[in-house]
Amino acid sequence: MSESTAHRPVAVVRNVPDSFASCVTARPAIPPLDPLLARVQHAGYVSMLEEGGFSVIRVSTAEEHPDCVFIEDTAVVLGRRALLTSPGHPTRRGETAAVGAALAPLLEVESMREGTIDGGDVLQAGGRVFVGLSRRTDPAGVAALTRFCAPVEVIPVRVRDTLHLKSGVSAVDAETVLWHPAACDRDDLEGMSVVEVAGDDPEAANVVRLPDGSVLVAAHFPATAELVVSLGHRVRTVGVSEFARADGGLTCLSVRLRSVIAVSSAS
Ligand code: CIR
């Protein structure tokens, strides 16, 4: 590799639309969501993805889709294939077409024909795929995902009180997940080393593994940052409070293509 290039896995993101304040939330956001603050925080998130070793591709934003920044929900990537989802909330279904167009040059892309899935319910860990049965992901969606992933094993997990499975569980390394009891039964994460996070907010368990081996943690969860350090990982932090107010965590702001390596500037 020359000094001016680096081979990096790809992360796909989608910028914050002006309509962000109208996105779907479990409870009305008070004060209203601020698209300008969200944009500043999104820029920080993208910087961290890049510093951590991802090459970032952007899908243009869509004013008619206030939630489009939560791009993780629109696609599940397994190796060099992508399944475009049918998101569980009807207002979000139109988000997938532009994501499919962005992924098509990089991956073999197919679309779901039955059921609903939000990518936030799909956790790849320990060589298997855990999928949350949630308010957004239904049994027909799980069946579609199971067909897509074969021969990789898909394990359905009943989501307890969180929006998505990954709202309260995420992988911190190849064998270990962070977990909050609001998300699911601990025993459902069979085969994984399960580490409980502190506090009342399940999103404290939502982190992103970066290609350089570090782990991205939301700045408003310092106890998670300490926990991840105690597990032997380097931590990067980023402020994403405006997305948290819209029921989103760190994973939901990108689709990560760990098997697709782009050659990019090493700056
Ligand atoms: C929604 O309710 O669909 C969005 N406001 C938040 C989606 C968050 N997605 C994720 O955690 N994967």
Number of helices: 5
Please state the structural category.
Answer: alpha/beta
Mean pLDDT: 95
Helix content: 10-25%
Poorly predicted ranges: none
Shape: globular
Strand content: 25-35%
Report the C-alpha radius of gyration, rounded.
17 Å
**Total count of strands:** 15
Q: Termini distance?
A: 14 Å
Strand order of the largest sheet: 2-1-15
Give a list of the ligands.
citrulline
Q: N-to-C SSE series?
A: EHEEEHEEEHEEEEEEHEHE
**Main beta-sheet annotation:** 3 strands, mixed
Structural commentary:
With 267 residues, this protein is of the alpha/beta class. The chain has helices at 35-51, 96-103, 139-149, 222-230, 241-244, and strands at 5-14, 55-59, 75-78, 81-84, 108-111, 122-125, 128-133, 154-158, 169-171, 176-179, 193-196, 208-209, 215-218, 235-238, 255-265. The strands form 5 sheets. A 3-stranded mixed β-sheet has the order 2-1-15. Helix 3 links the parallel strand 7 (128-133) and strand 8 (154-158). It is globular, with a radius of gyration of 17 Å. It binds citrulline.
List the helices and strands and how they pair.
Layout (H helix, E strand, L loop, with lengths): L4 E10 L20 H17 L3 E5 L15 E4 L2 E4 L11 H8 L4 E4 L10 E4 L2 E6 L5 H11 L4 E5 L10 E3 L4 E4 L13 E4 L11 E2 L5 E4 L3 H9 L4 E4 L2 H4 L10 E11 L2
Parallel strand pairs: 1-2, 4-5, 7-8, 10-11, 13-14
Antiparallel strand pairs: 1-15, 3-4, 6-7, 9-10, 12-13
The structure holds citrulline (CIR).
Citrulline binds next to loops.
